[in-house]
Structure formats: structure tokens, C-alpha cells
From TrEMBL:
It comes from Leptocylindrus danicus. InterPro entries: CWC21 (IPR051372), mRNA_splic_Cwf21_dom (IPR013170). Transmembrane segments: none annotated. This is CWF21 domain-containing protein. Residues 174-192, 212-226, 234-255 have a biased composition (Basic and acidic residues). It holds the Pfam family cwf21. One of its GO terms (biological process) is RNA splicing. Belongs to the CWC21 family. Residues 1-59, 156-255 are annotated as: Disordered. Residues 43-56 have a biased composition (Low complexity). It is found in: Nucleus. Keywords: mRNA processing, mRNA splicing, Nucleus, Spliceosome. One of its GO terms (cellular component) is spliceosomal complex. Residues 64-111 form the CWF21 domain.
């Protein structure tokens, strides 16, 4: 329970009793007005939007008519009192007073009707003028669209392009190329104008080694790329050389050595068989050699 709001006890509510919001709190009038003002501005671009209902509702015609009648009767009553308060020779009879009051009321009503007629006429005239302006604006837009369409068709037929839509089509492509070629031929400094000057070399920041390794320098990017690629390729070649076995070279060397030994010891190639045969021939040679020594 907080500030007299909420449960007196939280028993049986399965909650902690913490009040999340005060539903009975009434915001101040200024805050309510600001909120309504913000809501009105979301749907209106005017800075003078009000929150009054009279600004959004139309006036009641019966109330306006009643107010007009009251004003008219007040004027008539003032006129009656002025007539009745006359003294002496200016004193009027009751019948004359009634007639003058009646004439005064008729005059005021006629004056009001004339005024309303002028207002209605002015309103109708303004509405008619606004409608005429709207029609002229619509006609101008339609005329412009039709002109754009006609110019586009003419440009397509003539092989020209009209980007502006005002009838002034551009020159054909061939004439444009010829004019560009003439300008290029007459302009002696053409190459000098279009070829940019070389950018100054950036200053070294950490010595030649660091400068060479710096990728952000435009002149060093390609060198760094190729050098790193060459180093990677060299490492790959060395790694492949270590992993590759040269058995064919070793076999060729071994065959050459065996042939030399067979020639030296007089071993017949036709009866020579690698393995056991070679061992047997070698044993015979050893025996012969031993007997020769003896």
C-alpha cells in the first residue's frame, strides 16, 4: 500500500503488493493541455491549433439567429424608450410610438437581410473565383503533360532525346561526337588539363623496413602483395619438396651400382635374379675368391 492506494494486505494476491501506477491520479491542467496540443499537432501543420471544441465544431445556426434577434430587439427597445421619454411638444401617443417602432424593426430587418445577402454574394463570388483558379491550374497541368508527351514522341521520331521536356531536344549523337572531336583538336592543352599531376610520395614513418611493410601507402601495395605472394609460394615449394620422396632417383642409382658390381664380379645378367639369386652368386664368388687366395 502506497499513499493510501493499493491493497491493505498482499495475502492471497500472489503479488508483492507493489503499486505499478496510480490510476486515480489526475494530471494537472497544463499537462493535459500539452498532451492534447501534441495530439493536435500530429494531424495539423498549423502552429495555432487549439484544444477548444469551438475550434473544431461548426457554430449552431439557431443560436446565431437567436443572438441576432436579441440584438435587434435590444435596438428596437432602446428606440422605444427614447420615444416614450420625450416630454413637452415632442411627446407622442402610444399609437404613434407603436407605428414608429414597427417601422424601425422593419428597417433593421431589411438592413440585416441586405448585409447577409452581400455576405452570401461575396462568399459565392469567392467560391466561384477559387473554382475558376483551380480549373485554370488543372488545365495548365494537363497542357504541360500533353506538351511533354508530344515532345517525347517527336524526339523518338527524330532520333533525338529531350530530357527537359520543353521541346528543346538535344543534338544527335553524331553531331555531338563531331563537336567533341573539334574541341579536342582545337584545345592544345587538352592532355595537360585532363591528366592529373602525380601525387607526392608520402613521407616515411618508421624507416625503410616499416615503410616497405606499410600497406596503406599506395605505391607499396603491389610490392607488398607480390612479395608476400612470392614468399608464400616459396614456402609451399619447400614444404612440397620435403614431403616428396625421390624413389625413382634412388632406384636408378641402385641399378647403376648393381650393374657396375655385376661387371666387376663377372655375374651373368641372364642368370641374375635379385634377391636370393644374387646372394647365391655372391656366395659362389666368395668361394672362388677364397680358393684363389689359397
Amino acid at each position: 500500500m502506497y499513499n493510501g492506494i493499493g491493497l491493505t494486505t498482499v495475502r492471497g494476491t500472489a503479488t508483492s503488493g507493489h503499486v505499478q501506477s496510480n490510476r486515480s491520479y489526475v494530471r494537472p491542467s497544463q499537462e493535459r493541455w500539452t498532451t492534447r496540443q501534441r495530439q493536435n499537432h500530429q494531424t495539423s501543420t498549423s502552429n495555432t491549433t487549439t484544444t477548444s471544441l469551438s475550434a473544431t465544431r461548426r457554430p449552431n445556426a439557431k443560436l446565431l439567429e437567436h443572438q441576432r434577434r436579441r440584438e435587434l430587439e435590444n435596438k428596437v427597445l432602446e428606440y422605444r424608450l427614447s420615444l416614450e421619454n420625450r416630454r413637452g411638444e415632442l411627446t407622442l401617443k402610444q399609437k404613434e410610438v407603436e407605428e414608429r417602432v414597427k417601422d424601425r424593426r422593419a428597417f433593421l430587418e431589411k438592413e440585416y437581410r441586405d448585409y447577409m445577402y452581400q455576405v452570401s454574394v461575396s462568399v459565392s463570388v469567392r467560391r466561384r473565383e477559387e473554382e475558376e483558379r483551380r480549373q485554370r491550374r488543372t488545365a495548365l497541368l494537363q497542357q504541360k503533360e500533353s506538351n511533354v508527351a508530344q515532345n517525347a514522341l517527336k524526339s523518338l521520331e527524330n532520333g533525338t532525346v529531350d530530357d527537359d521536356g520543353d521541346g528543346a531536344a538535344c543534338a544527335p549523337a553524331e553531331e555531338t561526337k563531331k563537336s567533341e572531336a573539334a574541341e579536342f583538336k582545337n584545345d592544345k592543352d587538352h592532355h595537360r588539363a585532363i591528366i592529373p599531376a602525380p601525387a607526392p610520395a608520402p613521407a616515411p614513418r618508421g624507416g625503410p623496413t616499416n615503410n616497405y611493410r606499410d600497406r596503406r601507402i599506395p605505391g607499396r601495395r603491389n610490392d607488398y602483395y607480390h612479395s608476400s605472394r612470392n614468399r608464400s609460394q616459396q614456402r609451399a615449394e619447400r614444404r612440397q619438396a620435403r614431403n616428396t620422396t625421390d624413389t625413382h632417383a634412388k632406384a636408378a642409382i641402385k641399378d647403376t651400382e648393381n650393374a657396375r658390381l655385376r661387371g666387376a664380379f663377372g655375374i651373368d645378367d641372364r642368370t641374375f635374379v635379385s634377391g636370393q639369386a644374387f646372394d647365391r652368386d655372391l656366395a659362389k664368388l666368395v668361394v672362388l675368391f677364397c680358393t684363389h687366395i689359397r
